[in-house]
Every structure is written in structure tokens, then in C-alpha cells.
Amino acid sequence: MKNGFKSACGLSFFFVIRGAERVLSVRGFHRILNPLVFVRAAVNTAFKKVRPPPSLPDFLRTPVTRRTARQYRQNHYLNHFLEFFPERLAGGKWMNGCHIEGLEHLCQARQSGRPAVLACCHFGSYFLLRFWLRAAGFPVATIVGGNSAGRAGLMRFKDRFSPFPEIPTAFYQDQLREAAEFLAAGNPLLLPIDAPAGKQMNVPFCEGWTFQMATGAVRLAVRHRAELIPCFIVDEGRWRLRIKLGMPVPEEFLATEAAWVRAGKHLLDEMFPAFQAHPEQCAADLFRCLKQNSPAAEP
Predict the structure, then answer these.
(1) pTM (global) more than 0.85
(2) Is residue 44 part of a domain?
């Protein structure tokens, strides 16, 4: 009974938000939602235990106050509302707020009949990448943690409203075979390189630091002869977002397993300017991958 009531409330809220978005401008919609998420962000920030920051490279050591933590959490909550109406993101009302750079790399892969592996990190509003890229006309899906049986009914219902509703938006850890088949069919697959699961390799990050990178994206690109393309999203606030698809990894970096570190370095080099400009948007999963070199390992 309790779960049924919770589902009914969630479904009602879902349609209320969709209805409000349909009749309001982006600015008006933001004005209505912003006070609600402000209260939620302020309460959660006030009761969240402040932990000492992890050991990080100097340029990532940004002082985090209660106010900046609340502001970022507030933007994070607002961005989640975009998941309520993914099929409408393609319209000018919303697409004008999201600049996408590098789509020609996906177009070239499609024209050559090759699938594409989009390598991303837990940075910015990464959870929106697949929705915006679908809005741009590419049936992108992503691999996420957990088990497919645990996917909430409301989430499954939301998927019906996504562009390309016949194509899953996400594959879980028990659906890796289906994800590989999805990629083999020529579709773009989004995969985090800062995931803790699977095989890992150490890639130079910056002076004195190494990035422990999951090799899943590289392995899938090699296996399916796919383009391996770095991809990230920057949150500029008030539903203004910027997505970049960087230069694909050169084929010679994927030719042998010994060259995979060079492939990983290429991916990080494409993303590094965004990390440097917006360190506050780096999530804990990304920080977990950074390892300080021991003095004996220094050249």
C-alpha cells in the first residue's frame, strides 16, 4: 500500500511538472521551481556532514563553503527536472540553452557505418548527456551501475517519453551483453571511464598524479571497431549547458593493448581544460580515480 501511494504521488508530480513546462516559458518555469529546490538544497546542505576534502592536485582544491555547496546542489536538482520531458528538449525553447560542439564526429561515424563509444566522466550534469544527444538526433544509451530489476517503475515510465522510445536509454550491469549488441548495431554508447567496476589502467593525469581509468570504453571500441570519442557536459547555471564531443582517439592508440594508455591520455587531455575551469563540477567518483605518485615513481 505504501509503495503504491508513493508511486501514485510520483506519477502525479510527473504530470504536473510536464503540464507546467508546456504552458510556461523557460524563465517562468525556472522562477516557479527555483524556490522549491532552494529549500531542498538548503536543508540537505545544512544536515550533510562536511568531510575533509581528499588529497587532490592544486588546481582542484577549491574551497567549498556551505553557500557554494548549496548553489551547486540547487542547480543539480533543477537539471533533474529536464528528465521529465526529454522529448521536448529538441525544440528551440530548450535547445537554445544547450550548445553542443563536435557533433560532426558522431555524424562521420554514422556515415562510415561505425558505432561510437562516448567516453565520459562524472562531471557536470553528466546524467543529462544521453537525453540532450538524443534530442540532437542520436539514439544514445548509457551503461549505469546496479541491476535492471531494481529500476523504478516511474523511471521505466519516463523512458516512454524519450526520443527513440523503442531504444533503451540505459543498460545495467546485468545487461552488458545487450549493451554490446546495441553498440554492434551501430548505435552510440555512453560509458564512464571513472567507474570503479571492471579492469583498470593507470594513466598520467598531471604532474605527480595518475588517473585510475576503467578500460571498458577502450575494450568495447577495440572489439567493435568503434570510434572512441571523449564527451563531457558543463553546467553554466539556469539551464544553460554546454556539451563537447572531443577529437576521436587515433586508431593507432587502439591497435595494441600496450598503446591503450595513450588512448586514455588522449581522453583525459580532451577533458582536462573543463576540469581545470570548473573543478567544482567534478564529482566524488572522478576524484576517487586520482592517485598521487609515490616519490619513487617520479621521473
Answers:
(1) yes
(2) no
Over 50: is that where the pLDDT of 130 sits? yes
Of 15, 28, 11, which is closest to residue 239 (Cα–Cα)?
Answer: 28
In a domain, 99, yes or no: yes
| SS (HEC) of the chain | CHHHHHHHHHHHHHHHHHHHHHHCCHHHHHHHHHHHHHHHHHHHHHHCCCCCCCCCCHHHCCCCCHHHHHHHHHHHHHHHHHHHCHHHCCCHHHHCCEEEECHHHHHHHHHCCCCEEEEECCECCHHHHHHHHHHCCCCCEEECCCCHHHCCHHHHHHHCCCCCCCCCCEECHHHHHHHHHHHHCCCEEEEECCCCCCCEEEEEEECCEEEEEECHHHHHHHHCCCEEEEEEEEECCCCCEEEEECCCCCHHHCCCHHHHHHHHHHHHHHHHHHHHHCHHHECHHHHHCEEECCHHHCC
Q: What is the CATH number of the domain that holds 120?
A: 3.40.1130
Q: Which domain holds residue 211?
A: 87-297
Does 220 reside within a domain?
yes
The answer to whether position 28 is within a domain reads: no
**What's the number of domains the chain is made of?**
1
* Closest alpha carbon to 231 in 178, 277, 290, 274: 274
Stretch 125-148: mean pLDDT: 93
